[in-house]
Amino acid sequence: MTVCPVRADDASAPRPLQERPDTTAAYDSTWTEQAPAQPPTGMEQVMLSSGKIYVVLAVVLIIWVGLLTILFRTDRKIDRLERRLGDDRSDR
Amino acid sequence: MEIRIFVLLPLREYCTMPVASPVVNPRLYRLVRAAVILVLTGVIVAGLLGEIPQLDILEQSARNLYFHVPMWFTLMVATIISAYHSVRYLRSGDRMRDIRAREAAWLALLFGLLGIVTGMVWARFTWYVSSGQWWNFDPKQSMAAVLLLIYGAYFVLRDSIEDPDTKGRIAAVYNLFAVATMPFLLYIIPRQLPSLHPGGEGNPAFSQTDLAPAMRWIFYPSVLGFIGLFWLLYTQRVRLAWVQEQLRDEPEL
User: Fold this and answer.
1) Chain A residues contacting B, CB < 8 Å?
2) Domains (range + CATH), chain B
3) Is A23 inside any structural domain?
4) Assigned domain for A80 exists
5) Given B64, B71, B253, which is nearest A56 (Cβ)?
6) Digit-coded pLDDT (tens) for A12-61
7) How confident is the model at residue B191, as a pLDDT?
8) Considering only CB atoms, which chain B residues are within 8 Å of A23?
9) Would you say residue A6 lies in a domain?
10) Number of domains present in the structure of chain A
11) Fewer CB atoms near the end CB (10 Å): N or C, chain A?
């Protein structure tokens, strides 16, 4: 039987910034033991690497695509108006 | 000399403002546009470079707070603006009010879709990373989806009625029902149910212990920036719809 010792140095490490709520360190959560997880594959491998920064990239890209959708829809409305005005001109 | 004239002409044009748009004060529009460009550019830069708390599970994805959460704030503002114009429409019967309500609701739906998709991606790689689920029927997710369906039905209802006056009136009344469900579906019901989403246990999720002060300096400008962006897009669409209305009223043009 193997005993997994809790890494005491992490748990008892002094956190001098904890008394200063104006720094982000006061909100840190540090786990002493991580549950053994399956090695990620495929998309997860990308999304979970580099501290999950690619999740932020994906979110920003989704919003960007959404804004582009509005751009194109507004363009289509303008096109339709222009075509209508063009038709009216040629009728005269 | 050539260059001086070239520089002065646009300046003079700027000082003698063009005929005011009947929809919006152009000076206000330009002011908001400049502010939105500045603020959102700053939010993207500071949001990616700024300091955040080191949290397990969330890790760097905590930066999504600056992009995902403002979508929902924008949706709330958009639905309230939409409902306001619906009330004004019911009182006056002015077709422009109906158009304003429609455009605000359309953008609310769009920002809601962005909010729900960004939320799905965020949750997939944080809470559901072990289960690999994209959708878990978390109360916050489900109720947000219900809200989007309610707003989607607003457009189905609009398009199903031919007569513009009947359409405007029925859509306006439905819009008031839709906005009344918004706080319940986004706030009250999800907080009564066990949820993984922050703010689940009845706490507001923006209290001292939930959001680091350093993040507030990026988060609140981001909310204002996206609301400003909504207003710009909304104003553009209303201006366009106004031109369309003028053409409809003057078939001889």
Assistant:
1) 21-31, 34, 37, 40, 44, 47-48, 50-53, 55-56, 58-60, 62-63, 66-67, 69-70, 74, 77-78, 81, 84-85, 88
2) 29-243 (1.20.120)
3) no
4) yes
5) B64
6) 445 554 455 566 766 676 654 555 556 667 778 788 878 888 999 999 99
7) 79
8) 214
9) no
10) 1
11) N
For B224-250, write each residue's pLDDT tens digit.
Answer: 999 999 999 999 999 999 988 888 877
Asked if residue B134 has pLDDT above 80, the reply is: yes
pLDDT tens column, B145-194: 999 999 999 999 999 999 999 999 999 999 999 999 999 998 888 877 77
A92 lies in which domain range?
41-92
Q: How far apart are CA B46 and CA B78, in angstroms?
A: 26
With contacts defined as CB-CB under 8 Å, which chain B residues touch A81? 240, 243-244, 247
The verdict on residue A4 lying in a domain is no
**When comparing pLDDT for B57 and B26, which is higher?**
B26
